[in-house]
Automatic annotation (TrEMBL):
It comes from Phragmitibacter flavus. This is Gluconate 2-dehydrogenase subunit 3 family protein. Keywords: Signal. It holds the Pfam family Gluconate_2-dh3. Residues 1-31 form the signal peptide. Coiled coil: none annotated. It comes from the Bacteria.
């Protein structure tokens, strides 16, 4: 005679499955059979690149630019975007750090930028030594601008300055990108962000409605 099976409802079965699943997630790491060390945790850890913690931001790759290279980048970034009545300098908004992070990123599409930036820094300092027997960051402002004028593309670029010009084009793009995506530059752009207007919504200004020819819509 076969033993009777205890009846279990579908609802009870689902509760049991849900309970065991939750217990597996919540359970701490325990020693596996015949092992002295703890078993791996039952949950997968946070991946620093693909699953960032925005409350505790970290940069999971090593910054590649040396201290001397960063000095050159800082001077050049501040020549491109100096402090003025419109806003802070590039270095005040940590644009050189942004450039260092950008070219140090371990992605294939950053390799070319990395090589051009580091090669361009070397070219710039070599050219500076050739003209002034000093590194670019040690030359006075007049000498620095003299070199920059030859590679910024404002006029015809000589053959011997082509590498420098290509480097300057990239570092100018990165400087502008890093600067104008920083909240410290928004005021000069006229961007106010997502802020409360206070009080009742005034509606779309009449001049905008007329400009867009929306009189029959609004």
């Amino acid at each position: 005679m076969k033993p009777e099976r205890s009846a279990i409802s579908r609802r009870d079965a689902l509760k049991w499955l849900a309970g065991t699943s939750a217990a597996g997630v919540a359970a701490p790491a325990m020693a596996a059979p015949n092992e002295t060390g703890p078993a791996p945790a039952s949950t997968v850890g946070r991946h620093p690149i693909h699953d960032p913690d925005f409350f505790k931001p970290v940069f999971p790759w090593e910054k590649l630019l040396s201290e001397e290279e960063m000095k050159t980048v800082t001077v050049l970034a501040d020549i491109i975007l100096p402090k003025d009545e419109l806003g802070p300098s590039a270095s005040e908004l940590k644009v050189p750090e942004f450039i260092n992070e950008w070219i140090s990123a371990p992605y294939e599409d950053k390799v070319a930028d990395r090589e051009l930036i580091r090669g361009g820094i070397a070219w710039l300092n070599t050219e500076s030594f050739r003209r002034f027997e000093k590194r670019f960051d040690e030359v006075n402002a007049t000498g620095q601008i003299q070199i920059v004028d030859d590679i910024c593309g404002a006029g015809e670029v000589k053959a011997e300055h082509q590498l420098g010009a290509k480097f300057f084009t990239l570092i100018r793009k990165l400087t502008l990108g890093g600067y104008y995506t920083h909240s410290g530059s928004w005021k000069q752009l006229g961007y106010v962000g997502n802020i409360s207007l206070g009080g009742a919504y005034p509606g779309v200004p009449q001049e905008i409605i007329e400009l867009l020819k929306l009189q029959d819509v609004v």
